[in-house]
Amino acid sequence: MQHHQLGKTGPRVSQIGLGCMGMSGMYGPSDRAESIATIHAALDAGINLIDTGDFYGMGHNELLIAEALKGVRRQDAVLSVKFGGLRDPAGGWTGFDGRPQAVKNFAAYSLQRLGVDYIDIYRPARLDPAVPIEETIGAIADLVKAGYVRHIGLSEVGSETIRRAAAVHPVVDLQIEYSLISRGIEDNILETCRSLGIAITAYGVLSRGLISGHWTKESAQTGDWRAHSPRFQAENVDANLALVEALKKIAEAKGVSVAQIAIAWVVAQGSDIFPVIGARRRDRLAETLGALDASLSRDDLAAIEKAVPKGAAAGDRYAAFQMAHLDSEASAHR
Predict the structure, then answer these.
(1) Considering 7, 55, 110, 247, which has the largest number of Cβ atoms within 10 A of its Cβ?
(2) Residues 127 and 95: beta-carbon distance below 8 Å
(3) Which candidate in 27, 56, 148, 178 is catalytic?
(4) What's the CA gap between 96 and 273, in Å, rounded?
């Protein structure tokens, strides 16, 4: 497992990270013992970047990670935590809170649930339209000065917000969706980050399983939020699965899986891009690790581009109301 510095000022992290959201019910039922075993297997394989959010399972995910990390040396895990998403008792989403006093409150609870005395990378999950980003980042900077946070990250924000945030405190990475069928960051966000020495931690690399080669219309489970995702809707899903079939032919010719070639494509986009893969089972993790051995030639990349050209996906990556609240989308033209 290769490790690189995360951005200009960040810690050294593994070439890929483990995203733990799916271990807390977001994609239907999950197995607690298998989730913990998967975290252990990731650490054993040299993955040290562990990503979570305080709103994943309303704290369940942080408690799960805390259980998995018992007996693990604190410095062997780089914990990346998102905050700010507001939930109701039924599991619904009620907004986002980026006020300074809320930031410090969220951090206090995360530290307690995770069972640690500092968080490696702390980031607002979204931009709060009612709070200037300078105030939110300023509050995290206070936590850095106090020793509760080591580094500051961002998530799903556009170029203008990135620049404003970086003017308050160094930012190590931007967590944002990036995959073969979600390439919006290539328009200007990626260039902005590179000019500021900010890395990309890419989530949705397999587009929530859509381009994993494993998901089918028949495999959808109760409680899986993908049922509300435009790319999984009836009018779009067949067109998107056709892209997967085209990608499958290239993968088979190289002797790798569809998921592996999709991950390898993201890895090939630069050493400053770190895929965060949401494996919640050890077999899926093993498949992910195999992607690091799938070296793509210039001809391979050209074939992939032809099979899945930029903008080929049918449907947006989130529902319309969510897209409207994404600063990374609203600011795409800036």
Answers:
(1) 7
(2) no
(3) 56
(4) 27
Q: Which of 211, 207, 305 is nearest to 257 (CA)?
A: 211
CB environment 2-11: b (16+ within 10 A), e (fewer) = eeeebbeebb
Give domain status of residue 10, yes or no: no
pLDDT band at 213 (very low <50, low <70, confident <90, very high): low
List, for residues 267-319, the tens digit of each pLDDT value. Answer: 999 999 999 999 989 999 999 999 999 889 999 999 999 988 887 776 666 66
The two structure tokens encoding residue 246: 């085209």
This model's pTM is above 0.70: yes
> Is 8 domain-assigned?
no
The CATH number covering residue 313 comes to 3.20.20.100
Q: What is the pLDDT of residues 63-106, one digit of tens each?
A: 999 999 999 999 999 999 999 999 999 888 899 999 999 999 99
Respond yes or no: is residue 56 known to be catalytic: yes
Give the Å distances, CA to CA, from 142 to 112, 123, 166, 222.
Answer: 18, 13, 15, 42
